[in-house]
Structures are given as structure tokens and as C-alpha cells.
Amino acid sequence: xxxxxxxxxxxxxxxxxxxxxxxxxxxxxxxxxxxxxxxxxxxxxxxxxxxxxxxxxxxxxxxxxxxxxxxxxxxxxxxxxxxxxxxxxxxxxxxxxxxxxxxxxxxxxxxxxxxxxxxxxxxxxxxxxxxxxxxxxxxxxxxxxxxxxxxxxxxxxxxxxxxxxxxxxxxxxxxxxxxxxxxxxxxxxxxxxxxxxxxxxxxxxxxxxxxxxxxxxxxxxxxxxxxxxxxxxxxxxxxxxxxxxxxxxxxxxxxxxxxxxxxxxxxxxxxxxxxxxxxxxxxxxxxxxxxxxxxxxxx
Length: 299
Description:
This protein is mostly helical.
């Protein structure tokens, strides 16, 4: 049996650290669920079990998944310094992660979905808006996870690097989304993408969520190219900005090529924007995220 399955030796201490991280993660997940209800001024149990509000469930699921992604970057940071440091590190970076995900969602609501009342749309079962909302949270978490892994230690320098890097990279994400809105308007007689989402265009929300997550993945790959300098505040910011923009442009160029090859002789804009073709939108989602994963894997 040993010749068939060769397992890595796991120390007893590793299981203790695992238990610590899982307990802290579950507590933080519960706190996110509780805060989501408080901030939305609704009962989560009522929305999910009584009203069967799918849109609200998708939004909450996106927030919880985003926290799990963030905690994956925080787990095991201080294992060599003892149980106390491990607990402090997990709690500290978990709280920072929750805060930054919240900041990212607020920025997305105020700068991108600024023409609609997102919470009201979710209560009215706006599934398309819920998909974009969940994707925005996941995209923010992917960025935070990458920056957390990129930094070292739990000192002030690490916190500053995480926050500054997040703000710079998220600015790229927001600008990219704004350009996508302009593309939508140009293809739909100056129509509003936000209005289309409110009207329930699921294909549009799927295509846009792929752009959000794909951009987050490719920009996060900058962590493989940049050297973390604890006291290099300016160089850290400029590094993320320059490399992030370059990788985003690379992804967009590959997306254009990929669409012309995979969707040959198919007017994908008409299929997604006007005919609400979920199948074509799903292909576009896979193309955005898949290409981003390939490039980040190579880096």
C-alpha cells in the first residue's frame, strides 16, 4: 500500500494550526453573514428560506466566497512563531481582508453601479445585478489574496503594502469596467449597461463577471514579477500600477484574438447585448477567466 500512495509527513502541530485557521475562518464567515443582514436591513433567513430570494443568496454567497479566498492568503503566515502569533495573524489579516472587500464593493457600487440602488434591486430578485455584485466581491478577494501572499510578516509595512496595492489594482479594475460600459453603449445606441442589468439581462451579467474576475486574476499575477520591499511604499505602488496595466492590456489583446478564433463568424455583441444569449456569454466568461489563468500560470 505504501508503494501505491506516498504521503507527505504531517506533524501534529500542523493539525493544530489547521484547526486554529478553520475556527477563526468559521467565526469570520458567520460575522460576514451577520453584517450582511445588518447592512442590508433585512433578515437573511427570511430572504433565503421564506421569500426564496435567489438574487440575495447569490450576493451573500459571493461575499462568503470572497472571504474564504482572502483567508486562504492569511492562513499559515506565522506558523513558525507559535500558536498565539498564528491566531493574531489570522484574525488581523481576516479583518483587514473583510474591510478591503467591503471597500471594494462600496467602490464598485458608487463608481460602477452608481445609477441604481443595488440593495433594492437585490430585494426585488435582480439576479443579473446579484451575479455582478458577487463577481465584484470575488475579484476584490483574488487581488487581496495575491497581495497578502506577496507580502511577508504582520507588521505595519505589510498592512500598508496590502492596502496601497489593493487600491492601485482595484483602480485598474474599475477603469477597465468603465471602458466596458462605454463599449456596451457604443454597441447599443448609447444604452446604459446598468439599465440592462436592472432589466435582467443575465447574459450581460455573466459576460461582465468574466471580465471582472479575469482582470483580477491577470493583475494579481503581478505579484510573481514584483519584489516586495517592506519600506518601499512608492516603488510598491508604482510597480503594481505599471505591471498591472501592462498585464491587463495583454489580456485584452488576447481576448480580442480569442474571440475572433473561437467565435468565428459570430456577432457576440448582438448575441449577448441584444438577444441575451447565455450560452455565448458563458463562452466569453470562460475565455476571459481561462486566458487569465493561463497567463498567470506561466508567470
